[in-house]
Design goal:
With about 240 residues, the chain is an alpha+beta fold. It has helices spanning about 5-10, 40-55, 85-95, 150-160, 170-190, 215-230; strands at about 35, 65-70, 75-80, 110, 115-120, 195-200, 205-210. The longest helix is centred in the N-terminal third of the chain and has 18 residues, at about 40-55.
Length: about 240
């Protein structure tokens, strides 16, 4: 990341980036934010939401240990926080695999061996936003070993979970990432089922939902999605500078 943007994040979130210039023997943050500028808005949104959570609730402060790109995705390793901040970080990491690391436009993971997330303008591919992004029927059928009734119920709940169709073109990749992480958490991480009852796109992206772990991890995910959408152009999905 360019030094001026790196510095801007450090000055905005002094606690999170407390160890930015600490010695390499103590932290990997001494190497800076090891990704390109296209993820700046995503990292800024992520830090803003976790700092707000810490300030409001008094949970243990979140301190970044390492921020880097790996296999085309953001890795934001941190100490402190709670389930809510873990949800914010978890969605941001997943969403980054649909955001061009160079410019922030919706993109896809490309390349073999050296995987990067890029849009068409940066030698990658645009994420198709005009049609509904097809649901990936992930690996629900690949494992036919006998499972317990509880596991089976979790699979069913995960399969049933769907977000309402987001009409705003530039927000669809955000909704797609959100749906995928919630389905994954229901299936693998014992997240109770989430029920959607409304979607409002008039002022900004607002989900109305019930269930999950209530105000914990899943609330952090919804909040990150809504906050990042507020920074993205409704047509292109690219963050406004
Ligand atoms: Zn790009």
């Amino acid at each position: 990341m360019d030094p001026d943007l790196d510095q801007l994040l450090c000055s905005r979130y002094p606690t999170i980036f407390r160890d930015r210039h600490a010695p390499a023997s103590r932290t990997a943050m001494c190497w800076g934010l090891c990704c390109d500028n296209g993820w700046y808005a995503l990292i800024d949104t992520l830090c803003c939401e976790i700092q707000r959570r810490v300030d409001m609730t008094g949970v243990k402060p979140v301190v970044a240990l390492q921020v880097k790109e790996k296999f085309g995705g953001l890795r934001f390793y941190a100490s402190g926080g709670d389930e809510y901040t873990a949800g914010v970080i978890w969605l941001a990491d997943h969403l980054s695999t649909m955001v061009c690391e160079e410019c922030g436009a919706p993109g896809v993971q490309t390349g073999r061996g050296w995987i990067k997330t890029r849009c068409a303008a940066h030698e990658g591919e645009d994420l198709p936003l005009d049609r509904t992004v097809p649901h990936v029927e992930d690996d629900f059928v690949d494992d036919l070993r006998p499972v317990s009734p509880e596991r089976l119920r979790a699979w069913e709940l995960a399969r049933e979970f769907r977000l309402p169709l987001v009409r705003t073109r530039g927000w669809r990749h955000i909704a797609h990432a959100l749906e995928a992480v919630i389905r994954n958490d229901i299936r693998h991480n014992n997240l109770p089922g989430v029920v959607m009852h409304a979607l409002d796109e008039s002022e900004g992206l607002r989900f109305h939902w019930l269930g999950g772990d209530d105000r914990g991890r899943v609330a952090g995910m919804f909040r990150l999605a809504e906050a990042y959408a507020s920074r993205c152009d409704r047509r292109t999905g690219k963050p406004r500078s």
